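Budget justification note: compute hours in this period were largely spent on complex prediction jobs such as the one shown. Inputs:
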Amino acid sequence: MSIEKNSGYDVQISHALVSLLMNAPGPACIADFTGTVILANDYFKKVFHIPPGSRDLKINIFSKDSPFSPAVKEIININEGIVSSAWKKITISPADGEKRNLIAIIIPFSDEKSGHFFFFSGCDITAEDLMSPEESRTNMLHDLINEIVRSNHLGQHPNEQLQYVIGRVGKVMNVQYSSYLEIDENIAPFRIYERYLWSADEGFLFGNEIEVLRDDHTFFTIFEELKSNKPKILRKHEIHGLIRKIFDKRKSGTLLLVPLTRELHLTGILAFWEKSDSREWMHPELTTLLVLAGIIETCCSKHRIEEVLEKSEQKFQSLIDRIGDMYFMTDKSGLLIRVSPSMAKNLGFSSVHSLLGTSLENMIHPPEFWPVFLSDIISEEGVKDYEIQLATSDSQIIFSSISCRLVYDDDGELLGIEGVIRDITRRKQYGDLLSDLEWKLEQAQKIARMGVWSYDSNLERFRVSQEVFSLLGIPKDQNYVVFNDFISRTYPPDKNKFLHFFPLTVSHGKDFDFEFRISLDSGKFRYLRMKGTPLIKRNVIQGSYGILQDITERKDVENHLMKYATELEEKTMELDAMRTQLLDMNRDLDDRVRKRTVQIEDLLKQKDEFIQIIGHDLKTPLTPLVAILPYIRKRITDPELGELLDNSIEDVSTIRKLVTTILDLAQMNSLYMLSDIQEIYVKEMIDQVINDNAYLIHQKSLHLVNDTPDFCQVFMSPIHFETVLGNLIGNAVKYSFIDGNVTINVVDQEDSVLITIKDEGIGIEPEQIPRVFEDFYRADNSRHERGSHGLGLAITKRVVEMYHGTISAESGGVGKGSVFSLQLKKNPEIFLKKREGLIHTIKQQQRDKNARK
Amino acid sequence: MQGNRNVMIVDDDAHVRIAVKTILSDAGFHVIAADSGSQCIELLKEGFSGVILLDIMMPGMDGWDTIRAILDNKLEQGVAIIMLTAKNVPDNKMIGLQEYVVDYITKPFDNEDLIEKTSFIMGYVNDQRNPGTAE
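Corresponding output:
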């Protein structure tokens, strides 16, 4: 804004400053550094009698004519050149003669172009100044009260607002300190907290904690007086104890205490500390303070109550949220206005909100039941454990138990129904199951002839199952059983047993298990078994419980068994005696057998030796006979003599064979052998044996197959091998029918060789098979031929066994052929070592011999 | 046929000696006979070399004793021993001497077998005496 100034030059002054100037509550102007007024408001012009709108101001605020000059001079020290903003209460006497009290404020500001300026403002406080200090303070307190009541800030933010109020009041009251004393009567010794301590000099200070002992009599008296809701003024010189110390510390003379009370309880105190010890407060002022205190208390307690309410509401809600049972509340018309989440869940609603607003009526199943239910509630003001069925949103039925009541407000007006529902579907199922089980148990008890009992030691009564009645023979119309019912029926000799065992559970907490008899009308006994254990509830023995079982049958069986056991024992003893005798006899027999065995072994040895000698003595003369006779035969030309000699040669040959065989057998018996064990080519040896039988094979037109793999070898004496194979193949040939097949099969196994000789000949009777390997056995006497003496297979078996081999015979029966199986180890470790060279020689010999053939 | 054809039959039984001598002589061998082990030693000392057919069971000095005597007198050079036996029973005496026995012939024997074995062992003796000139 460009303002034309009286001095003739323009000054740029900001809008904000001009606006401030125009709206100032008293005379205000802007002056340059010389004090010449550049701009002024109408109030200012009025003071200096300048018509409004006039621009010709011609006033210097520093001049002696100016009504401001005394004040201005006082607050501005121009000479020092230091200018700061300042204020001063001044009195001016305008031209109309009426004195005005002003607050004069001077604020310097500067402009780069135009230099220093002053903003001068006055605030007209004449009206306030005319009032007494008490009046104005009271007025201000009233304003504050109005403000508090209107804004309700104190109710919403009690802590911040209380601080603000304490500060305001302190300022209004023009005291040294003001504070709020909070009293917590819940804590013993109760404490006073000094909060929101405000100081006229320093503003808000941290509150002290004033701890007051209960036995501080001064304070106790003061408190009691304050409870009557009257302000209390304390003077330093009247006070002792703790408060006096605070007085000293704060250099105070007077303390005004204004109580905040609720129903004769002191909840807080407004405290005002004054320096002088003679300050007085007028009645209206104190009354206003009490009103203020009352308002503060109301606001704060309202807030507290709301807080508590909110908390309990939250608690309630969380309780509802957490309970497994369904909680609900309806309005008057039966619409649900509050339900627990569990209710929504159980009834198949996705959330609590989707359930709210529906009628409780819709939940009841069947719907016809609703009026009945409702009338029951209304007539009884509520129901407890009311069993009812509820239908869920997907039409499932829930068995439930409802407890609910009618709810009224404070004026007795019906609000609705409130209650809890418990899902007893499970319980219902369990209940059914339980009654089913009970029935089964009863049946089982009947079958087992077993009853169940429990004894209450306080009532001295038994509770028993049906079976006990029948076991004891008590009429069924008797409801309970007492101790005497047992005792009176017990067979007298067993009574002591009963009296001894039964009290054990109650007196000593011990289990018992005993048997006793009761007399029946028929004169017989019934054996009963009673088993019991203490019934302990809350660590106190309340009685006992157990079973009662009919064991008569078992007893009978036991008695029978006892009888048999005794008999059995007698028999056992007899048997023992007999066994001892037998043992003695056995021992005698053993001795005799052992002696006889030794004798037999001696005899056998003698026999072997005898045969050895006989054999040798036979062989020696046979040798030249066998050698010479063929030699002579060659020289004989006379056919008649030649034939006779041929017969002799044949006879000698037979004798030789017989002697050799007998000696072989004797040798086997004594388990000696000629030690010319060597590697034998099985195929070659078998061929040789077949060759030896060639005449008979040809005569019978037999088909022999030697199915032996090449290079198959066993380690054996060739003599023994020839003996074994010669016997087996010889037999096969001998007992084959004309044009029959004989198959010799050899399988080369890992460490053994399996040889089978199969013929289609006369076969063996099944019952004879085990005997074919016996000495001097001949399957069929009619088959007796020359040269057959029934020793072949016996010798064969011995040889095979000597080499740790096995031999067995099979036959389909008479006329169905036989199979002899022979298993020979490739390396039976029974032989004596021979010089390598010699083995080589003999092999060579063998090969040469074969080559020559 | 080249080489040695000498055979000595040592047996206490005269019939056996005659039989062996008859058969082997017929087969072309030069056979001398001894009726005991001691006579066998005597003949060896006189310079016999060839095949000895030695009976085991003889009264007094038996076949095994005879082999031991041959070894004791270091007369084993140029001889090969075939044991002639009527019994197949080995006894303790043979232990350690077996390796000096080239073959066994069991009494009573087949003539062919006797001739065959004797011929074969004779070849063996000749090889030993003249190594490198075999066949």
